[in-house]
Amino acid sequence: MATLTTHTPTLADLLDQLGDVPPSRVLMRPAPGQATEADVLTVNDREGRLCELVDGVLVEKAMGFRESILAGLILSLLRAFVIPGNLGLVSGADGLMRLFPGLVRTPDVAFASWDRVPGRSVPSEPIPDLVPDLAVEVLSKSNTKRELTRKLREYFEAGVRLVWLVDPQARTVAVHAPRGAPVVLDASETLDGGEVLPGFVLSLADLFAELDRHG
Q: How far apart are the C-alpha atoms of 64 and 62, rounded to whole Å?
């Protein structure tokens, strides 16, 4: 993994290396390049700011209310599918995972089969060494294309088998696998779990209809 202390002498270089992340999401304490996993937990506990650790930098997770609604529904549907067959674990947006030493990510939703879970039991440590089979990211306005490109590369280098990028604004889901071009589904189509979760299906019309609910 790159380090900012030797390769990123300016703020512009820092933001470029992180994938054009908006400055408002980059924490300056601890100093960029000096942050640790302990700092991730401290900021989360003391300030309620959910951050990822990238190249020794704390980068705040982008998430809004509408995004959380979609993430919550996906999580609940995945749990309803996974738990009856005891297929593994489903985690939410505060489920920190160490993909590589020095790289901590927290997908909005993730599924990890038991074979990928250390000891085949719920981890007790706050940041386990855990690479999920499926990672779901619900996009916010502050997510950039280069940030997502970097995150996809890291997921697949770590061994993630499937990534769903859910776009609330466009009402699409881009399905990414380690090889081949992504498949972009619109609200008229159905999302499935592929080889990762055979038999799981989700109507995207039903998913995005959550954004239109009213009293």
A: 7
Q: Which residue bears the tokens 């599924």?
A: 111
pLDDT in tens, 124-172: 999 999 999 999 999 999 999 999 999 999 999 999 999 999 999 999 9
**Do you know the residue count of the chain?**
215
Residue 131, by phi and psi: left (phi above 0), alpha (psi -120 to 50) or beta? Answer: beta
Cα–Cα distances in angstroms (integers) from residue 155 to residues 56, 178, 190, in the given order: 18, 9, 24
Nearest to 66 by CA among 166, 151, 163, 193: 166
What digits encode the pLDDT tens for the residues 4-31?
545 557 889 999 999 999 999 999 999 9
Give the per-residue pLDDT at 48: 84
Residue 70 has a CB neighbour count (10 Å cut-off) of: 23
- The angle subtended at Cα 159 by Cα 81 and Cα 82, nearest 5°, is 10
